[in-house]
Amino acid sequence: MSDTLRADTQQTPIDGLLKREFFLIGCLGLAGLVVGGLLLGLQWLAQAGLIWAFICYQTKRRLPLNRPSPDAPLYKNLGWANRLTLLRAWFIAAVAGFLFQAWPEGPALSWLPGMLYLFAAVLDRVDGFVARRSGQSSILGNDLDTVSDAIGLAIASLLAFGYGQVHWSYLLFGNAYYLFHAGIMWRNSRGLPVYPLPPALHRRTWAGFQMGFLAVALWPLVRPPITTLGGFAFMLPAILGFLVDWLIVSGRIDRQAEAVNRRFQWLTDFSQGVFQPALRLVVVVTLAVSVLQSGLPLLPSNSPTWMNNIMVGGFILAGLMILLGVAGRYFSLIMVSLLGWYYISNPLLPVDYILFCSVVWVLLLGTGRFSLWQEDDHWLNRYDGA
């Protein structure tokens, strides 16, 4: 992220049309929050307005970056991709309005925080697609995307914790971006070297899954202990990734060294060749054990027969596809959804903790080697519109 703008870009004159467009978007966003405040109260408006002001400030100082490269001329308008990113940031500001308050009551309002964050999560995938399809990718868009991701995860995780949906430790991940950059600033202030961080496809993919989990955790339909367990399962690989990244930027791991590269390659090969295929087996075995221990029907006896048939059929199909490695990530997502539905009316057995974590880790990591079809990996790891 371009936290420090180059002097020549800071001095670049901003086109009047671009300034007016940004001012109009800021005013429209504020007007929308005022309307929401009439329904949701003054505290909601104050908190949402504060976050929207922060987003507008971050955008205004980066307007000189509204160009495809540092030496290219400025675009004369924000473009649809940046407009969508700002809309996503507006949804995140609206989610922030619910902080430090009880969960809204009512059949509609209780769903509002989670649905607003879900809209923001969906737009996270759409804005990049629009930028590349429209041919107006920009440094500004990349920066705003990172700012929105970071503040969105921090706000949503804090709200989920406030609602009692996740353990306090999940806040470590929600604020990991800020802790990471605070560590970099501390090293800079001490005159310590900061080493470059190699690009990695999994960072963006995992962030997207975290957004999806938090959106669901903010729905009133799903409650602990499944949301608490889900928070742990989704958080653990991401936290380990942040720790490895910190060891790299602080110089404790030298990614330029050949011996280090060989170790990372060994870990990659071990994960793809042993760990991920083993997870597929664990999912199938623990699912079978869980079903046998629970007995049939899987849902309460007063549930319609067709619901139980969907549950049983879904488990069999998803388990088989995960075992064979056929679009394993897609079917892991289906399995997570089925398990979430199942645990609404059934207690978590000890085997279910292993089952749920294993399914989530297949979702995050993929099915690895000996898989029959991994097109889902290619879709997740590519940039839409490329």
Explain this structure:
This protein is mainly α. It has 2 domains: 243 residues, no CATH class; 108 residues, no CATH class. It is 70% helix and 0% strand. It contains 15 helices and no strands. Helix 3 packs antiparallel against helix 4 and helix 8 runs parallel beside helix 10. The chain is globular. The mean pLDDT is 91.
What helical percentage do the residues reach? over 70%
- Number of folding domains? 2
Order of helices and strands: HHHHHHHHHHHHHHH
Give the count of helical stretches: 15
Which radius of gyration do the C-alpha atoms yield? Answer: 23 Å
Q: How many E-type strands?
A: 0
- Percent strand equals under 5%
Weakly predicted, low-confidence segments: none
**Average of the residue pLDDT scores:** 91
The class by helix and strand makeup works out as mainly alpha
Shape: globular
Helix-strand layout with pairing:
Layout: H1 7-10, H2 16-40, H3 42-60, H4 79-96, H5 112-134, H6 139-162, H7 170-174, H8 176-189, H9 201-217, H10 226-249, H11 258-294, H12 305-324, H13 328-345, H14 350-365, H15 375-381
Helix pairs in contact: 2-3, 2-4, 3-4, 4-5, 4-6, 5-6, 5-9, 6-9, 8-10, 9-10, 10-14, 11-12, 11-14, 12-13, 13-14
